[in-house]
Amino acid sequence: METAQQQRTENQRERLNKLYRFQRHFYDLTRRFFLFGRDDLLRQMNVLPGERILEVGCGTGRNLLKLAQLQPEAKIYGLDAADEMLKTAGAKLDAQNRQKDIVLRQGLAEQFDYQMTFKLEQPFDKIFISYSLSMFPNWREALRNALRNLKPDGDLYIVDFWDGASLPAWFNRLWRWWLALFKVYARPDFLEFLKDLRTENAGELTVTPVGRRYAFIAHFQKNKGISQ
């Protein structure tokens, strides 16, 4: 018999599949015009050879392939809740013969586990979330789960929409209207939650603005003494 949690998980999966069933075909073409800071984040991560890197909410695989170009010797993994997006990501890996270099898995951000989901013996060295956190209904649980799946002293990187406080008022209104069309909303409380985690001694937080607070890049380095 299906539990309430399983039903909620399946409902979320179906909702995302419905949303991206057609969008996935033109997603990368359109997002390049307003998802700023993604390549900056990939460079800031300074991925080293052999490191285990996970993108939560990997979508079409665009960032994974860019990262593989920056550091071909990294071990790269991608997680997404939408099977439809993973179809596009898988097709890209096939086209570039990267199937053995990048591992894709379906799952929710708040539920994945490095052992059960990816069959790894050790947690990830780095995890990043690129413009997906603003679409996670359970984003607090997703952030805590990301930290659980990081090694002590591991790094969590996030790029996402900020509050636009330094943008012209007319642009801010237009920008928020445009995001709402895709059911995406700027959430300044992401950073407040990360600050709370810092005060809990979970790690150290550094925040870099992108485009007059259009977006932010956050680096949260997990405390060395925290294993879970």
Task: Describe this structure in a few short sentences.
The chain has eight helices and seven strands. The protein has 228 residues and is of the alpha/beta class. It has a seven-stranded mixed sheet with strand order 3-2-1-4-5-7-6, with helices on both faces.
Features:
228 residues; alpha/beta; seven-stranded mixed β-sheet; 8 helices; 39% helix
Description:
By secondary structure, the protein is an alpha/beta fold. The chain has 8 helices and 7 strands. A 7-stranded mixed β-sheet has the order 3-2-1-4-5-7-6, with helices on both faces. A hairpin with a 4-residue loop joins strand 6 (203-210) and strand 7. Helix 3 runs parallel beside helix 4.
Extract low-pLDDT stretches. Answer: 24-30
Gyration radius, in Å: 17 Å
Main sheet?
7 strands, mixed
Order of helices and strands: HHHEHEHEEHEHHEE
Q: How many individual helices?
A: 8
Mean pLDDT: 85
Q: End-to-end span in angstroms?
A: 31 Å
The counted number of beta strands is 7
Q: What is the SS-derived class?
A: alpha/beta
| Strand percentage | 15-25%
Helix percent reads 25-40%
Shape field:
globular
Blueprint (SSEs and pairs):
Layout: H1 4-23, H2 27-31, H3 38-44, E1 52-56, H4 62-70, E2 75-80, H5 83-95, E3 102-106, E4 124-130, H6 139-148, E5 150-161, H7 169-181, H8 189-199, E6 203-210, E7 215-222
Parallel strand pairs: 1-2, 1-4, 2-3, 4-5
Antiparallel strand pairs: 5-7, 6-7
Helix pairs in contact: 3-4
